[in-house]
Design a protein that fits this description.
By secondary structure, the chain is mostly helical. The chain contains eleven helices and two strands; from the N terminus they run αααββαααααααα. Helix 7 packs antiparallel against helix 10.
C-alpha cells in the first residue's frame, strides 16, 4: 500500500526570521492540515481506517433486525446493541491502525529521518499525527451516530452520566489507540509489510471483543484473552453508555459498570505512552 507523505516542514511565514520561529503548537497545527490532506487523498488508507467501520454499521443494521432480550420485558434494537462495539472498532482503526501503518511506512522509507533534519520540532510532528487521529475519530463517530439515529432509530445514551461515560471512553480510547499505534511501529520490519503486520491482529480482536458478536456468546477462554487488550474495554464502556443495566450480566464475569473501563483504559494509556517512548525510532532504514 503506497503512502505518500509530505515530509517537509511547514514553510515559515514572511518575516519569520525577524519575528522569531513559530511556536511548536502553531507548527503542529500546520502539520495537522498537511496530514489531513494526505490522508483523504489516499483512497486505500481512508477506506480501511475510516469508511470500513461505517460500512460495517450499514451491513449489520441492514442484514440483521429484531430485538435482543435482556431479561423480562427488557429489549433493545439489534443495531443499538452492536453500535457501541462498531464505534470502538472505528476509534481503534482511526488511531491505532492508521498511525501504526502511516508512521511505519514513513520510518522505513526514510521520511522521518529527513524530517528530523529540518527545523520542524519533533513535538510538532506528533501533534500533527495526533490531530489527524482526533479529527478522523470525531468525524467517523459523528457519522455513525447520525446514521444510526436517522436510519435505524438507535437510542442515544440516556442522561448526563451516560453521556459523560461515553465522552470519557471516547477520549481515552482515541489517546490509547494513538500511543499504542506509535509503539507498535517497532514490530513492523519494512514498509511493505506494515498493513499485513497491523491489520490481522486488530481484526482478530474485533471478533473476540464483542464487536461482531454478542459478548456473552463468545467462549469464556476467548473472553479472557480479549479482556487483556483495550478494544474489549472500549466496547464495554460504550455498551454501558448505550444499553440498559440488565445487559451487564452478559459481560465478562457478569460484571457491569463504568469504573473498570475507565481504569483499564487509563492504565493502557500510560503503558502505551511508556512503550512509545522506549520503542519509537526516527530512522529504521539501518535496521
Amino acid at each position: 500500500m503506497a503512502f505518500n507523505v509530505a515530509s517537509a516542514s511547514p514553510s515559515l511565514p514572511a518575516g519569520a526570521a525577524r519575528a522569531g520561529r513559530p511556536s511548536v503548537l502553531r507548527l503542529g497545527l500546520s502539520r495537522v492540515a498537511i496530514e489531513l490532506k494526505v490522508y483523504f487523498r489516499n483512497v486505500e488508507m481512508m477506506f480501511f481506517t475510516f469508511l470500513l467501520p461505517i460500512l460495517f454499521l450499514f451491513i449489520f443494521a441492514s442484514v440483521f433486525s429484531g430485538d435482543i432480550n435482556a431479561g423480562p420485558g427488557v429489549k433493545v434494537n439489534f443495531t443499538n446493541y452492536f453500535l457501541p462495539g462498531i464505534i470502538a472498532s472505528g476509534v481503534m482503526s482511526a488511531t491505532f491502525a492508521s498511525l501504526a501503518i502511516s508512521i511505519a511506512i514513513e520510518q522505513h522509507e526514510g521520511m522521518l529521518k529527513r524530517l528530523a533534519g529540518t527545523p520542524l520540532p519533533k513535538a510538532s510532528y506528533f501533534i500533527g499525527k495526533l490531530g489527524l487521529a482526533v479529527v478522523v475519530t470525531l468525524a467517523q463517530t459523528a457519522i455513525m451516530l447520525v446514521a444510526a439515529i436517522l436510519l435505524y432509530g438507535v437510542e442515544l445514551p440516556a442522561g448526563p452520566h451516560r453521556w459523560a461515560v461515553f465522552l470519557s471512553v471516547l477520549v481515552l480510547s482515541a489517546a490509547t489507540g494513538a500511543v499504542l499505534g506509535i509503539a507498535y511501529t517497532r514490530l513492523v520490519p519494512n514498509a511493505k509489510s506494515a498493513p499485513a503486520i497491523i491489520q490481522p491482529p486488530f481484526l482478530i480482536l474485533q471478533f473476540i471483543s464483542g464487536v461482531f458478536f454478542r459478548y456473552g456468546e463468545i467462549p469464556g477462554w476467548l473472553q479472557a484473552i480479549a479482556s487483556i487488550f483495550p478494544l474489549k474495554w472500549m466496547s464495554l464502556g460504550f455498551r454501558y453508555a448505550f444499553l440498559p443495566d440488565s445487559f451487564g450480566e452478559f459481560e465478562y464475569g457478569a460484571d457491569w459498570g463504568w469504573e473498570r473501563p475507565i481504569l483499564v483504559l487509563t492504565a493502557w494509556l500510560v503503558a502505551g505512552f511508556v512503550l512509545a517512548l522506549l520503542f519509537f525510532r526516527w530512522d529504521r532504514q539501518r535496521e
